[in-house]
Amino acid sequence: MTWLILGTTALVLALLAMRSFARANTAKVARRMQVGTGVASLLLAGVLFVRGLSAVAFPLAMFGSWLLWGTPTPWAGGRVRKTPGQTSRIETDHLEMELDHDTG
Prior knowledge:
It is a single chain. By secondary structure, this protein is mainly alpha-helical. The chain is built from three helices and two strands, in the order αααββ. It has a two-stranded antiparallel ribbon. Strand 1 and strand 2 form a beta hairpin. Helix 2 (26-50) packs antiparallel against helix 3. The longest helix has 25 residues, at 26-50. It starts with a helix and ends with a strand.
């Protein structure tokens, strides 16, 4: 009987979590996931560096730094500014597409 109560409780909590995730603002969820992944990458890179695995730690630290600040290293400068009005165009046998970089 204990397992039934625990299983039902876990199911209800999982459903509530999925419901709140589905109703959340996608931009905020994406930013939180990006920051969380960046922080976790930097922490893991620090642990790997202390353990002597610097060949793995440096690329992981660069990835975490890129997620948090948009550059591989915080001292490399700010973000690149986009020039407005740019488009990309591709044409194949089955597809013709033009992408406006400002609006996506």
